[in-house]
Structure formats: C-alpha cells, structure tokens
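Reopening this one. Same input as before:
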Amino acid sequence: MTLFAKIIRREIPADIVYEDDDVLAFRDINPQAPVHVLFIPKKPFATMNELTDADAPLIGKLIVTAAKWARQQGFADDGYRVVMNCNRDGGQTVYHIHLHLLAGRALHWPPG
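Same output, byte for byte:
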C-alpha cells in the first residue's frame, strides 16, 4: 500500500484542501513553491503507463479539479504549473499517479 493510499484511508494525516468521490488534494510535505498541492485520483494507478482510454474521464477530472481549485484560491490569473511525473527518470517517487500544482512565485523553464 502506498503512502497516498494511506492518506486516502486516513491512516496517516495530511493537510487536505479538496475532496470528492474521485479526487483528493493535499499540500505537499516538501513544497517546491509557496503553493504545492498534490491532486490524486482515489482509484490507484502506479504510473501513467497503466492508464487506458477508459481512464480519460477520471484523469480529465483531475486536471479540471486542479484548475478549478486554482481559480478558487485566487492565483489562476497570475499563473501556476501542473506536473505529472512517470517512473524514476521522470522524477516519480510515490507510485500512485498524482498531479503537482505549483504556484505562488514565478516558475522558470526548463525545470530541473
């Protein structure tokens, strides 16, 4: 069981900022920007490589939920970044897909 599955089950604490039947969002414990929130599907997928066409509505909802939350928090017009990492070389460290939402400062390109 992954760390994120334990957060979904409330077995370990998290600073949860959003939840519905499909998506949970919480603040990253090692933030890389003033706002760093992880949006995760409650349905577990280890990596993006497991996704199929049937999962498109759920992954779309993940992205739409992050954008809606950014608008509600008031920083959408200033800008934010969303990132999904896949496997070790892509920077993935928890094998439950998740979308990073970073905001609150100017973000530069390319990322590290």
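So the earlier flakiness isn't reproducible anymore. For the record, The longest strand covers residues 35-41.
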